[in-house]
Specification:
Length: 222
């Protein structure tokens, strides 16, 4: 697999961090003639995906292309998510400590659709503790792992579209087009809260960043 100077679309595998992808691309790029005699090749990405998530990462290789990463970060993102109802997670996804909610009413499809509609538009969302967001110079997940929870300021986000793809309790499949800075894990939690069932994100895949599509991305493996 060859990585020259430029913009590359990568399909991030599950259990890889976004940093793992950057390191992989850098390792492959050093064999390219574009980077002869360069000690450390500049490689950057367009926005972090959680390790359990899969999907589109835009990677810039070479100084002039890593400088462009901020413009991609600002583009709308599209995700497909599988949400599990009837339980919560301290990380808001399947990697955390799961707590089952007992004696919850099972919502019907109409209730699900009506609830999803309420999340459309501009709103404030509180970043989860298990996230790479920095507060006072420290990453929130580092504090969370120490058992420390701090107050987080809500962030203004926007959901442009939200579509129910499939529903068979306890699993709810949705597609979401949203602004940068949106946490789909937190959206899953909030949906569960509004339905009074509890919920967490079981699967997450980013399918689009602006005009860039996952189906055009390169698959990678170690």
């Amino acid at each position: 697999m060859n990585f020259n100077k430029g913009i590359h679309l990568i399909n991030k595998p599950t259990d890889w961090t976004s940093h793992d992808v950057v390191a992989f691309v850098r390792g492959k790029a050093k064999h390219n003639s574009d980077f002869k005699n360069i000690k450390k090749i500049k490689v950057g990405h367009s926005g972090t995906l959680d390790p359990f998530a899969t999907g589109l990462l835009i990677i810039g290789v070479g100084r002039e292309y890593t400088k462009r990463m901020d413009e991609f970060k600002k583009l709308p993102k599209t995700y497909e998510a599988v949400i599990k109802l009837g339980a919560t997670s301290d990380t808001q996804d399947k990697t955390g400590k799961i707590t089952k909610k007992e004696n919850t009413d099972i919502p019907n499809k109409k209730n699900i659709k009506n609830t999803l509609k309420t999340f459309l538009g501009v709103q404030e969302q509180t970043p989860p503790m298990f996230s790479a967001k920095k507060v006072q110079g420290k990453k929130l997940y580092e504090l969370a792992r120490q058992g420390v929870e701090i107050e987080r300021k809500p962030v203004k986000i926007e959901l442009y579209k939200i579509k129910l793809l499939k529903y068979k309790y306890p699993f709810l499949n949705i597609r979401v087009k949203c602004s940068t800075g949106t946490y789909i894990r937190t959206l899953a939690y909030d949906i569960g809260d509004k339905l009074q069932t509890g919920a967490y994100c079981e699967e997450l895949k980013r399918t689009r960043i602006g005009k860039y599509k996952l189906r055009k991305a390169k698959k990678i493996k170690k």
